[in-house]
Amino acid sequence: MALTEEFEAIYQDVIKRNPGEDEFHQAVREVVETLGPVLAKHPEFAEAKVLERLCEPERQLIFRVPWQDDNGEIQINRGFRVQFNSALGPYKGGLRFHPSVYLGIVKFLGFEQIFKNSLTGLPIGAAKGGSDFDPKGKSDSEVMRFCQSFMTELWRIIGEYTDVPAGDIGVGGREIGYLFGQYKRLTNKFEAGVLTGKGLVYGGSQVRKEATGYGCTYFVEEMLKTRNKTFEGMRVVISGSGNVATYALEKVSQLGGRVVAMSDSNGIIVDEAGIDFETVRRLKEVERRRIKDYVTIHKKAHYQKEGNIWEVPCEVAMPSATQNELSGKDAALLVKNGVIAVGEGANMPSTPDAVQIFLNAGVLFGPGKAANAGGVATSALEMQQNASREAWTFEETDAKLRQIMRSIHQTCKEAAEEFGSPGNLVRGANIAAFLKLSRATLAQGLV
Fold first, then answer.
1. I need a surface site. Which of 218, 353, 356, 418 has the fewest CB within 10 A?
2. In what order do the strands lie in the sheet with 302-305?
3. CA 57, 23, 158 angle in degrees (round to 5)?
4. Percent of the chain topping pLDDT 90
5. Which long-range contacts does 182-188 make (Cβ < 8 Å, 24+ apart)?
6. Could you read off the pLDDT of 383-418 as tens digits, one per residue?
7. DSSP characters for 77-93?
8. Burial class (CB in 10 A: 0-12, 13-18, 19+), 320
9. Where is 224: in which H helix or E strand?
10. Which residues of 341-404 form beta strands (DSSP E)?
11. What CA–CA distance (Å, rounded) separates 390 from 313?
12. 59-195 and 211-366: same fold?
């Protein structure tokens, strides 16, 4: 979509100030091209340059992470933390450990987090961080040494009222435990609210592990309701097999859907009988094996090395692996094969042309900043429990998560309708979040 001269100038300035950071540029453009109606109705936001301020992080930290592997060799990785915006609360956002991590990835994730966190309705700002460290194939001892070195640098800028990291790709309960232990050792304080995604025995929350997958499923459920449909009997495809995909699988199955395909970076599995949640959970969480091993247990399923999961016909697609995994070509194929709803479990997994194809075809489309907000929402619920020294039940926390996802869907739907784009939840999400952020930014002055 072509930008007006004013918005094009803002976008080009972002490119100039952040050269070579393609994912960040993409995330900014996707927001910028939707905000024209808002700034026309609220010129005070344009005069205060709220959008320009949102595009510039409040603070960026890049640091060296030296650690020793099991062979005694010294390894060097790079760590990042981008504290993007604190207009609504303390910085909040995950840490990603993956070889692809560089400053542009972290800034794209942090920028998306601003809008996602605003949509939750909870008092949290936005940040993101991580490292180009790859935990795959590493021993527990190696992961522990890396996490301790990483936290030795990070601890200075985080705290329960300052910045609260969580997990993301490559950072699960094991990594959060090692990070928390080192933070406690460095500060000599048991500050439970400084990290979320903790184990239940030391301040974690029920449903946190399941939250992003469950939340995305609840969001898709709300979209389906607008057409008097449910998950019952639906063929569903979920890309990925990490935390988000695994628990989306569980919740879709509970709601009557049949997940027929999942994937990892090596290939895809297809099980027409419906993929079994307990098998996937055990393979990924307990045994730390690849998704291809599913077919050694379920003989009627088949594995396709380097296969394209979007070639599997489905009615609901839930891209839950990584950014830009679903192309325009993939979107056209999904539409041809009868997809009616797409819920993004990952951050920005659909390319811009894919999103446009879905919207043009009338496919229900839940953008990641809305559909996968369940993870950070439950992190904020964990912060609440830590602050009040409470521990809620699984059912209580799950009910709160479900209500938050319903509220996010309703908020996006109403904003889209108010600003002339009924059914376009991409615009609705951006506009609803921007309105809240703008009002908070103006109230706090030029900071």
1. 353
2. 302-305, 267-270, 258-264, 235-239, 316-319, 341-343, 364-366
3. 35
4. 97
5. 182/147, 182/148, 182/151, 182/152, 182/155, 183/151, 183/155, 183/158, 186/151, 186/152, 186/155, 187/155
6. 999 999 999 999 999 999 999 999 999 999 999 999
7. EEEEEEEEE-SSSSEEE
8. buried
9. helix 211-225
10. 341-343, 364-366
11. 45
12. yes
Number of CB atoms found within 10 A of residue 292's CB: 17
pTM: 0.94
Catalytic residue among 128, 184, 198, 251: 128
The reply to whether 136 belongs to the active site is: no
- Give the pair of three-digit tokens for residue 357: 């194809």
Q: How far is CA 104 from CA 29, 37, 101, 365, 426, in A?
A: 14, 28, 8, 26, 22
- CATH architecture label of 211-366: 3-Layer(aba) Sandwich (3.40)
CATH (residue range 59-195): 3.40.50.10860
Q: How far is CA 297 from the centre of its chain?
A: 31
Q: Which residues contact 429 (CB under 8 A, 6 or more apart)?
A: 115, 119, 367, 369, 370, 412, 415
Residue type present at position 278: E
Q: What is the mean pLDDT of the chain?
A: 97
C-alpha distances (whole Å) from 414 to each of 100, 101, 222, 420, 438 are 37, 35, 13, 10, 18
